[in-house]
Specification:
There is one protein chain. By secondary structure, the chain is mostly helical. The protein has one domain (10-114). The chain contains 5 helices and no strands. It has helices spanning 10-41, 44-54, 57-84, 89-94, 100-114. α1 (10-41) packs across α2 (44-54) and α1 runs antiparallel to α3 (57-84). The longest helix has 32 residues, at 10-41. It starts with 9 loop residues before the first helix and ends with a helix.
């Protein structure tokens, strides 16, 4: 899962990893709530029905949207650092007085490396 799409732009890896992590987070989030209702009702099916009627869906989806943003940011940074390199990546990206041109040059280099010719 490290580099599933080696001949594609980085966004493919970012989108793939974000999707996988978000699906797992959604399942875990739902199961956390389901376990509580399962214990209260004593049955998995009854607990699931109870959960579906009592869950506050806007709250559930708001949490999922927040998770989506955080996971997408994580996957993006992870892929950039993977391509740039551990030694150079964080220093160039996070340093307050980093040259703007160096980041632009690096992104152009990534584009050339990851775009099909």
């Amino acid at each position: 899962m490290i580099n599933r799409f080696p001949n594609k732009p980085l966004i493919y890896n970012v989108a793939w990893k974000t999707l996988i992590y978000l699906l797992m987070a959604t399942v875990i989030h739902y199961l956390e709530r389901l376990i509580d209702f399962w214990r209260q009702t004593g049955s998995f099916v009854a607990g699931n029905k109870e959960l579906l009627t009592k869950i506050v869906w806007p709250h559930f989806w708001a949490i999922q949207i927040i998770l989506l943003v955080l996971i997408a940011m994580y996957c993006t940074m992870h892929e950039l650092v993977r391509v740039i390199g551990r030694e150079k990546g964080p220093a160039d990206i996070l340093r307050p007085n980093a040259r703007a041109g160096s980041i632009k040059d690096e992104l152009e280099r990534f584009n050339r490396l990851t775009t099909k010719k």
